[in-house]
Amino acid sequence: MKKLNLFYYKTKNNLIISFEKENIFGELITEKEASNNTNLSIYFLINTENKINRRTFIVNTVSDLFIKRDSLNLLKKDTSKDSLIPSWLLNLIKKDKIIALNKSYPSWKKVLEDKIITKNKKWNINIVGLGDVGGTLITGLRLLGNDSIDKIGIYDKNINKIKRFEYECNQICYPSLDTPTPKICEINEDNLFDCDMFVFCVSVGVPKIGNEKEDVRLVQFKGNSKIVSYYAKLARERNFNGLFCIVSDPVDLLCKVAFTESNKDSSEKLDYKGLAPEQIRGYGLGVMNARASYYALKDEKTKNYIKEGRAFGPHGEGLIIANSIKNYNKDLSDYLTDKTKTANLEIRDLGFKPYIAPALSSGTLSILATIKSQWHYSTTFLNGTFMGIRNKFIKGTTKLENYENMPEDLFEKLEKTFDYLKSY
After folding, report:
1. Which pLDDT tens digit goes with each residue over 175-208?
2. Gene3D superfamilies, from UniProt (predicted)?
3. Which of these, 259, 253, 284, lies nearest to 52 by C-alpha position?
């Protein structure tokens, strides 16, 4: 198969590759020169002319560069076009070294200039909302974030909550007092976005125990969407370049609200100059994976979930648990899905709000995995909506996990969930 004709450019910090000439970058360099500059950040320019596609992403296979419209087909590993590029470039793709950059976004050049978060730097995280989930999340980050987090800023409309968590969490220390822990700092709304990661934990309209007449998460959507809209617009005003993260329910739908509202101008028209898709992440699927593992370990027939299973979709209605990708079994998967989806109601039946596992599995542990570029569950942007999928955060963007042999009946379920999320 004939190799693609590629154009190479070098700037101060970047190696840029394109299917066509890009005069704004000056003189072309040779392929040999390009192959000798792979220590730079490497961007492959694409142009989908479609802003419901991603702005940036880690290239998994060469086929990713030819996609005109993002879809769940990205979960199916397609190596059919890998032979079209030189072997040295293919090796870089296999090492997650190449970032696709979509020129259809007005802010695409900004990506080349901004280094959002530098490697090996401890992050500063700001958290808004100090209720049950927010408070537990902060506690977990204080205990486990010493190698990844420098400071945790905390904010709430209730000033006494801020003072309480500053006081109590800064008194969570290891017996050896010189063991480093992230410092908990009081912040105000003016410096909410002076950070690498903003975490939204505000929740309103949570039903009282015994009043669960419908999906508890969807009940919260109306109230939480108004608040997340406010902060998303504020992030735009402040030219925020870090991660805008949502832990409040329903995370997938609130991520879409954050993206849409931050990308409207003063006349409410979409201009796509706000938060980019890769900046927004929702953390709700981590606890569903944890709950699935809890139930899977109770039966020998489902134990393979621990090593082979996957979770997909929202933190609630539409959730899909696959007992295994390699050895998919519909009945076992449906059983795990049902048990996982209703696990929160079991805790409510005992008279408690189910917030500890979500705050730690979806929140603390998934956030730390994000910072460390490890596999975790969070929402990712596809075709104008957000859906929970296993992924990594690498070099300021997202690498999706894809599969060589995705079972077709499982894929059909994923498409139904995707259509369900797009309907909101």
Report:
1. 999 999 999 999 999 999 999 999 999 988 655 6
2. NAD(P)-binding Rossmann-like Domain
3. 259
Structure tokens given for 96? 């997650």
Among residues 246, 248, 295, 301, the alpha carbon closest in space to that of 275 is found at 246
Tokens of 7: 């154009």
Structure tokens at 19: 């299917």
SS3 for 74?
A: helix
Q: What does the alpha-carbon distance between residue 153 and residue 131 come to, in Å, rounded to a whole number?
A: 15
How is residue 382 written in tokens?
């596809």
CA distance 288 to 294: 10
- Asked whether 118 and 151 are in contact (CB, 8 A), the reply is no
Residue 130 burial (CB < 10 Å; 0-12/13-18/19+)? buried
Q: Which residues contact 32 (CB under 8 A, 6 or more apart)?
A: none
**8 A C-beta contact, residue 381 and residue 301:** no
Q: How many degrees, rounded to 5, is the angle at CA 342 between CA 338 and CA 347?
A: 145
Q: To which H or E segment does residue 46 belong?
A: strand 41-46
The domains of the chain, with CATH numbers, are 7-113 (no CATH), 123-282 (3.40.50.720), 285-422 (3.90.110.10)
Query: Low-confidence residues of the chain, pLDDT below 70?
Result: 1, 115-120, 205-218
Which residue type sits at 297? Answer: L
